[in-house]
Amino acid sequence: MSIDREMVKRLGILSRLRIPEENMDEMVTELTKILGWVDQLKDVNTDDVLPMNSVVEDMNLREREDVINDGGIRDQILANAPEEMDGYFLVPKVVE
Amino acid sequence: MSYIIKGETGDWEIVVGLEVHCEVISKAKLFSGAATAFGAEANTQVSFVDAGFPGMLPVINHECVEQAVRTGFGLNATINKKSIFARKNYYYADLPNGYQISQSDHPIISDGYIDVDLENGETRRIGIERLHLEQDAGKLMHDQHPSKSFVDLNRAGVALMEIVSRPDIRSPEEAGAYLRKLRSIVRYIGSCDGNMDEGSMRCDANVSVRRPGEPYGTRAEIKNVNSIRFVMQAIEYEAMRQVEVLESGGRIVQETRKFDSVKGETRSMRSKETAVDYRYFYDPDLIPLVLDEAMIERLRKEMPELPDAKKKRFTEEYGLPAYDAGQLVAEKDIAAYFEAAAKGHDAKKVANYIMGDLFAVLNKLGKSINESPVKPENLGRMVDLINDGTISSRIAKDVFAFMVEEGKSPDQIVEEKGLKQVTDTSAIEKMVDDVIAANPDKVAEYKGGKEKLLGWFVGQTMRASQGKANPAMLNELVKKKLDA
Amino acid sequence: MTDLVELTISEALDGLAKKEFSSVELTKAHLAEMEKARELNAYVLETPEVALERAQKSDERRAQGKAGKMEGIPVGMKDLYCTKGVRTTACSHILDGFIPPYESTVSQKLEDAGSVMLGKTNMDEFAMGTANLTSYYGAVRNPYKDKTNPDKFLIPGGSSGGSAAAVAAGLCMAATGSDTGGSIRTPASFCGIVGCKPTYGRCSRWGMVAFASSLDQAGTMTRTVRDTAIMMGAMAGFDPKDSTSANIPVPDYEKALTGNVKGLKIGIPREYNPDKGLNSDVRHVWESMAEKLKAAGAEIVDISLPSTQYALPTYYLIAPAEASSNLARYDGVRFGLRVDGKSLDEMYTNTRTEGFGKEVKRRIMIGTCILLEGYYETCYLKAQKVRRLLCHEFAEAYKKVDVILAPAAPETAFGKDDDSTSDPLKMQLYDVFTVPSSLAGLPSVCVPAGTSDINGLPIGLQVIGNSFQEETILRVAGAIESMSGMPIRPLRMGGK
Fold it and tell me: Model pTM?
């Protein structure tokens, strides 16, 4: 799959970033370049190699006890909100 | 008998798979220590983890893992010793991190089934593809403000079990039966309260149609239907719609649709974002969840008796017909009530009273079985009184009504109200004689061949006894005396 | 009395213990030095009130005989660490005005150990950069000068550039850094200080603004190896709030500093010595240090890490993929910048477009792309497979050697306006020696080992150890430090 302007537009939509028209071509070139560069990985034989998601993958996932020891801090949760009212965060109206 | 849509051009079969989201019963959330209880003030049950603050990290709640495993046993499924959490990436105002922690290709539970009973007595086995754990989202409110939506993150991060069926469902009825059975199982286990109206159990339906025997058609997904009845309606409507589209030469679009319960129809939710791609990848903040064999064994041993086993036991132990047993086990509390009432008594009769008079009363009062004004031991005792002839089944109706009203034991009621059945032959004979003596014309008509009047005499005498006369004895004596 | 800002941590702890000076005095000296060196732009937020209050309390604790491991020591805090009540932005516009209502585990542990926070240090935006040029608050100047061109504005390396410059110039006794692909070691090398990235899982990531979760690791930046040992002892340790934190006891790192390398096997990976891409001055320092270590009794072993060349592309797939998801939470709803819009999506897009800098956006786009169906398998999963191969090669190597000695950066600090700084692909090449051990999660310490015979700038070497072998790498680093003849006193801006 090659990178074209459509793809850049789609990536912009998915990541909620606006790519100005005048930067489109630059972004196409840059993504093409980087995907071309990482393409060298295909030279590595990874048959029978499992993907490694974490270097600590062999540790046991620790589990917390089912106790309520957090929450009840609404003021702190809302303290940094750009817009809040009556204990709620506010966002532009969503039409469902 | 299969459900077939008779189209203009022939028969169509429907194919349905259900994705059910069950909110897990736990005190704290899946990855944080904030509370899960319903009804709290907005954003008071939110931790920095739930609100996706910078640098916050998830730590899994052990109880949610156990609940999933228990439910896995209930679904006759494979418990996967190793499962992996993944991020599902998308933007929405109810999703603070911009991703939902879920499970993709390594769910905690896979490959199960449940058997569902249909009206006609058939049993259908519906396959379960998987059950995985994931986070619930927050809630948006749209009508508080002209230009803003309000965001409450209290639900954000509460554990959900998403239970995905195989496309084995072939009718709206089967879908309803599947949901009822699933709800019954999670309630028995105590892993979800199953209340669809409160949103603690939610259903998405994947619906397609095909010519019988042909490969699956393109499906539409109907999102977030909030009652069993609506799921059945939505499937019925959607299947008809698809048949109409196909028969008029159209194509089914794979899309998400919404069910409008007022109009009883589904409609397309055309999203602006046609580019959607959830970009699942394993969450690097978590490592694989590996279940301890000893824990799995412990949970297996602790499993409660589930509806199927209980139903089987009820038929064997109490001699109930399968249908009655099925009715009684659908809810754990009803089954428990039945057992408390039936132990040592005539179980079949007790079952009949529960499914008849008691359900009617509870329905009228809007009460659950646990709030029943009639104590189970009193119901059992009442059946004893019928069976030993102390009261007639007719009088039992009155006794039952008094039990509902006063909550007293049947013995006490019979005693206080003097409802004891009259079984003394001479006393009944006297009453019959009185009625005959008072109605010479009716006696003449009877003797003249109007045999139907026999019932009239029985009725009159019963009334005279205030209903307390033993009906069998009464019948016999009236006939004997009239024919004498 | 020596000038207080010139002391090492261990010297200062002695002086405080002997009541030669107080923490308040030590803190004031550093605050004054910070004022003199604002041109470096090492701090994005100075917190003198917090500092003096904590110094005061520290002196009280010490008077009560309750001194912690870093009691009274003034430190700089990378702006990546959330600090309760103190603005934290990861040097991004999108976190404008964000005042965390919580304290990161690492900064809390440092505070609990008695240290005194002087302020928040500059860094590349979200730690994405190798030169500290992507910060919303502007570039940081390296206190060192290129002797062939003394007026040249040299970068300090990144992403922990503010921390490195602050430590090098005596604007704090030590600073926190974080390392995802070399963000501690590169600036340490460029600024002539000691930078240590411990094993992944050694320090908690809780409260640290995430870049790439499977790689991010907190670490130390100090002027001496002993100071690193002291600070690491205070920072490291298990944290139940981080599911990837290792439940392994923290040893006394200072005890490991025996200076003795006799019998230690030191591996020299031949793939780290390419014909192109390694400057001769760096190569020279590396080779001569290997000789010195050999003379000190270590055994130098030639080793091979054949997949090294694939580490960079692997890193530049994994890190942006994780970042694209980690940075999705910056949406203008709960904290930081909001740029309004008519719809929710418009608000998101306006906020993120204005809030993120160019390099961050670039990496989000790349990361989003490679997680897409159609790329995921060939890019992301492939990179994770190569990551396993790399780890395996390191594991094999550590069957033969105790540590690996390698350059930290292919060259010395470069100019802010050099051509290479505008080409992301070229900038990425500076991570070539640091990224492999990041991918493998291994501990690595960069220690000054010499200066360039071309421009006089410091050159650091990294000592990479096996998992949780911090003691061994610090032991070797200590030996290098003592043999390098490199200064341990700060390079002061205003003079003494």
Answer: 0.93
